[in-house]
Design a protein that fits this description.
With about 475 residues, the chain is an alpha+beta fold. The chain has 14 helices and twelve strands. Strands 5, 6, 7, 8, 9, 10, 11 and 12 form an eight-stranded antiparallel sheet that branches. A four-stranded antiparallel sheet has the order 2-1-4-3. Strand 7 and strand 8 form a beta hairpin. Helix 1 runs antiparallel to helix 5 and helix 13 crosses helix 14. The radius of gyration is 63 Å and the shape is elongated.
Length: about 475
């Protein structure tokens, strides 16, 4: 689950502003809705009052039939800006007087407010005002009263009005409400910012200090300027940083001592080991050579340091005597491990030769980047000579130093295989030494062995080497 990136300051601002914003929206909605409703009710009430007034003032003109006076009265009475038209109808629903602003050219009301849902009307009857006289104290029932009222109706007045100005007033109220709410919200935001800054600044400084201490700057100290719990926390963190710095110093001293001890152990081991060890840089320059390698190469430590490995490490293939350049570049450039299956001959500075076994490995850092190489080799001359001597002894007779029967059979098998595989010609000569037993019996076996050696050397001198 991803961690939230919201800071304490942002959270405090959110806590302070969000409720104020919600309350402001609710108040704005209530204020606009309520005031808009009041404006509509007030408009309808005024239109209704105007209709009552026109109905009462039109009674006499309707009785007398003075319709011109009605028209003039309407022009004078219906001057309110929200009045669109006034109609007076007689009993037969015929227009006897009419005032309609829609026919005027100078009306400032848009056309879409002169019809449809923006236009409403109020209709009231024009009745004869009568004063009931009850001289005989007779009761009049409801049906009779209704019939009497219907006979007293002279006509109707219809007043049409538009909510154009009411809509404009509501929009004005909305703007005023928005301005008021905006001012209130601005003050709330300012207060919230001040509160967030006051509360979050110590915590921000505290978090910044902890981050620096965590990064390893244990000598950094937080300014202890707060009170209460935050001040106590600042003090404890500073004390913790002091303790960590002391512990780190002790640990570093211990690590340095341990590292120095390990270095001494490693150096002593390398100095004491019987194998030659040479380390190089990434460019093949010698950076270390142990005493065994000094003995085998013939170069002193001071002579070898800083020189390319190939200058002091002169090698040949032992079997072919072919000189080779030691492949340290393959180890440094490609990270290959160098190990020769064939024996190498190392020529020391003074010309003495050693048979060696060798291996070279790349040295890598913590990023697996090659930073050098180490060459390890040892003197194999003694073992090699012993092995050659054992091979010689296994194939030759100890007394006569000639091939023994087993080696003769091996050579014979090789010749036969060569003849079968390559169709070559081979010859075997059997030479019988007459009177050889006489020499052994009269002069002894030593003389017989010497005779065999001399005869073999004589024969060898008479034939070609191959």
């Amino acid at each position: 689950m991803p961690k939230s990136k919201s800071t304490i300051r942002n959270k405090l601002l959110l806590v302070a502003i969000l409720p104020a914003l919600c309350l402001a929206v609710l108040l704005l909605f209530y204020f606009v809705t309520q005031r808009g409703h009041d404006v509509e009710q007030s408009l309808k009430h005024e239109v209704n009052l105007l209709a009552e007034f026109i109905a009462k003032n039109s009674e006499f003109d309707m009785i007398t039939g003075n319709f011109d006076s009605l028209n003039k009265s309407l022009e004078r009475i219906a001057q309110d800006k929200y009045i669109i038209y006034v109609r007076i109808l007689d009993k037969n629903n015929r227009d006897v007087a009419l005032y309609d602003k829609r026919t005027l050219q100078d009306t400032k009301i848009p056309d879409d407010f002169l019809s449809g849902k923006h236009l409403f009307s109020v209709t009231l009857p024009i009745v004869i005002t009568s004063i009931p006289v009850n001289d005989y104290n007779q009761e009049i029932n409801s049906d009779a009263a209704s019939t009497l009222q219907n006979k007293n109706i002279l006509g109707r007045v219809i007043v049409g009005a538009t909510d154009f100005y009411a809509t404009g007033m509501k929009r004005k109220l909305e703007k005023q409400a928005i301005i008021i709410i905006g001012i209130a919200l601005s003050l709330a935001v300012i207060f919230a910012i001040f509160l967030a800054h006051t509360v979050s600044r110590p915590l921000t400084l505290l978090a910044s200090g902890i981050k620096k201490i965590k990064a390893g700057n244990l000598h950094y100290r937080i300014n202890e300027q707060s009170n209460g719990e935050i001040g106590l926390l600042e003090k404890n963190i500073n004390e913790m940083a002091v303790s960590l710095a002391n512990a780190q110093a002790i640990e570093r001293r211990q690590a340095a001592n341990l590292l120095q001890t390990e270095r001494i152990k490693a150096h002593t081991t390398l100095e004491s080991i019987g194998e030659g060890i040479i380390t190089t840089s990434e460019k093949g320059i010698i950076t270390y050579i142990n005493p065994a390698a000094v003995h085998l190469t013939g170069y002193r430590y001071e002579e070898a340091m800083g020189r390319p490995l190939t200058e002091i490490f002169t090698t040949y293939f032992e079997s072919t005597q072919e000189k080779i350049t030691y492949p340290i570049d393959s180890c440094l450039k490609h990270g290959h491990i160098v190990r020769h299956d064939a024996l190498l001959k190392l020529i020391r500075k003074d010309g003495e030769e050693f048979i060696i076994r060798d291996t070279a490995n790349p040295i890598r850092d913590h990023n697996s980047t090659i930073v050098g190489a180490v060459v390890i080799f040892d003197d194999f001359s003694t073992l090699h000579n012993m092995a050659e001597k054992l091979v010689y002894q296994a194939a030759h007779d100890d007394l006569t130093e000639l091939y023994n029967r087993r080696e003769f059979e091996n050579q014979l098998d090789l010749a036969l295989n060569d003849t079968k595989q390559y169709q070559s010609d081979n010859f075997v000569f059997f030479i019988d030494l007459d009177q050889f037993k006489v020499v052994n019996d009269s002069c002894g076996h030593i003389a017989g062995d010497q005779l065999l050696r001399q005869v073999s050397q004589l024969i060898k001198s008479k034939i070609r080497d191959h």
